[in-house]
Design a protein that fits this description.
single chain; alpha+beta; five-stranded antiparallel beta sheet; 5 strands; binds 2'-deoxyguanosine-5'-monophosphate
């Protein structure tokens, strides 16, 4: 499978990794939209939210546990941060391996564009 984020998991494409666990990996976004912009991904390939099944519930939970730890390490937990997971092109998904954006370090507006 020709998946960019699977290649990062495999170490075949470099990334600035900030978190690593049995189930998840997190690295800095190549095109940051905030002072902190980290992508949290499952090691397992899942293309979109629509492809998740019941067995993935703990896996998805682990992405949020990672986000919480990353936010604390980045010093953005108290001020606040945003987590976003886009699903399919209409919502802006461009890499088809699910990933949780963790954005912080600046004020966030609502609704997102
Ligand atoms: P999305 O549009 O929600 O699918 O987000 C994909 C993100 O992936 C986007 O913010 C840019 C980031 N990205 C794309 N290619 C690379 C890469 O090779 N390395 C890193 N670190 N981030 C990437």
């Amino acid at each position: 499978m020709d998946c960019l984020f699977c290649k990062i998991v495999a170490g075949r494409i470099p990334a600035e990794i900030v978190y690593d666990s049995d189930t998840a990996l997190a690295f800095r976004d190549i095109d940051p939209q905030a002072p902190t912009h980290v992508l949290v991904i499952p090691r397992k390939h899942v293309s979109t939210i629509n492809d998740l099944d019941g067995e993935d519930e703990a896996l998805v939970g682990s992405l949020f546990t990672a986000a919480k730890e990353i936010a604390a390490a980045e010093g953005i937990a108290d001020d606040g941060y945003r987590t976003v997971m886009n699903c399919n092109e209409g919502a802006g998904q461009s890499v088809f391996h699910i990933h949780l954006h963790v954005l912080g370090g600046r004020p966030m507006t609502w609704p997102p564009g």
